[in-house]
């Protein structure tokens, strides 16, 4: 569904940019080209504003980890450049045009390797994870990669999707899988854990059905940027929203011991930065990484894949 939506957005953008260029071609060609370039590169300016906002917003009190000093403009500029490159690859190609190119890994796998469920974030689909799927396949892991749909639903609505993915991953090896979640995907995993209170009496607790949960830039306490969203899942990710407070209150804090949470001081989507940490979890700092770039940072990927080899 998201792939179709993004393709339609690009088709409309192409028509609009060409129409603008044609309109000004005879009288002010420079203005036509300026508008054409802005249609396709203006997102880089929007990303720049996100980084400025991320640096300006003050940390929250009571964070799970100490707030770092605001990053300098040099690291922010490098993070911005990396994020622009990753955004082009993820939102310009993998998600709209190649979301099915890397299928789930359900055959020719090493049964001794733990299965992995990859859970994407907001306004994303399974195409986001293409580099992860390829590397996990090379290591012999079974991999299940669901799409969280509808795109703009409540985060609670994704719990059944994750439950099915966990069941499928478990069937591959007979072992509890590991969840690797980016951004909103980490909240969806926590919502899935909470939904276990509705399971039949005597059912295996959901926390026992997963070996570990790794979150990458997940807004565990929300994000300042979500105040600009009007979608159900976007509003739920507002800083210390009623939904997030209920999620924390209705979850067992002991579950957090099974979480590894990666966070960054240059995250342009989830900020203030410490909101991506979780009390009682193995919170790991990855300095200088932007939001999408964090998921593909060599420090994060290599550490996670090396750890998976030992499971």
Describe, in plain words, how this protein is organized in 3D.
By secondary structure, this protein is an alpha/beta fold. Helix content is 46%, strand content 8%. It has a single domain, classed as Alpha/Beta hydrolase fold, catalytic domain (Rossmann fold). The chain has helices at residues 2-24, 29-56, 73-97, 130-139, 159-173, 184-194, 232-236, 242-249, 291-296, 298-309, and strands spanning 116-119, 143-144, 178-182, 212-216, 259-263, 282-285. A six-stranded parallel sheet has the order 2-1-3-4-5-6, sandwiched between helices. The two termini are 34 Å apart. The mean pLDDT is 95.
Concise overview:
The protein has helices spanning 2-24, 29-56, 73-97, 130-139, 159-173, 184-194, 232-236, 242-249, 291-296, 298-309, and strands at 116-119, 143-144, 178-182, 212-216, 259-263, 282-285.
Features:
alpha/beta, 46% helix, globular, 8% strand, Rossmann fold, 311 residues
Write the layout of secondary structure elements.
Elements: H1 2-24, H2 29-56, H3 73-97, E1 116-119, H4 130-139, E2 143-144, H5 159-173, E3 178-182, H6 184-194, E4 212-216, H7 232-236, H8 242-249, E5 259-263, E6 282-285, H9 291-296, H10 298-309
Parallel strand pairs: 1-2, 1-3, 3-4, 4-5, 5-6
Helix pairs in contact: 1-2, 1-3, 2-3, 5-6
């Amino acid at each position: 569904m998201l792939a179709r939506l993004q393709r339609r957005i690009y088709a409309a953008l192409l028509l609009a940019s060409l129409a603008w260029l044609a309109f000004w071609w005879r009288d002010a060609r420079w203005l036509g080209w300026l508008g054409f370039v802005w249609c396709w590169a203006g997102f880089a300016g929007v990303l720049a504003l996100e980084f400025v906002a991320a640096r300006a917003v003050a940390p929250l009190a009571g964070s799970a980890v100490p707030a770092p000093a605001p990053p300098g403009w040099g690291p922010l500029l490098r993070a911005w450049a990396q994020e622009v490159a990753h955004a082009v690859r993820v939102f310009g190609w993998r998600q709209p045009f190649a979301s099915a190119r890397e299928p789930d890994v359900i055959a020719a796998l090493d049964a001794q390797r733990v299965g992995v469920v990859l859970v994407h974030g907001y306004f994303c689909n399974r195409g986001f994870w293409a580099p992860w799927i390829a590397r996990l396949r090379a290591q012999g892991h079974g991999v299940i990669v669901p799409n969280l749909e509808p795109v703009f639903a409540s985060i609670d609505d994704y719990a059944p999707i994750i439950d099915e993915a966990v069941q499928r991953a478990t069937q591959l090896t007979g072992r509890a899988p590991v969840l690797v979640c980016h951004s909103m995907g980490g909240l969806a995993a926590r919502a899935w854990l909470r939904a276990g209170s509705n399971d039949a009496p005597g059912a295996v607790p959901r926390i026992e059905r997963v070996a570990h949960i790794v979150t990458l830039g997940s807004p565990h306490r929300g994000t300042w940027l979500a105040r600009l969203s009007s979608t159900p899942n976007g509003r739920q990710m507002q800083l210390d929203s009623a939904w997030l407070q209920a999620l924390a209150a209705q979850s067992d804090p002991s579950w957090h011991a099974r979480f590894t949470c990666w966070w960054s001081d240059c995250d342009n989507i989830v900020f203030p930065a410490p909101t991506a940490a979780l009390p009682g979890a193995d919170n790991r700092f990855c300095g200088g990484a932007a939001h999408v770039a964090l998921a593909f940072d060599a420090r994060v990927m290599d550490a996670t894949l090396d750890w998976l080899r030992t499971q």
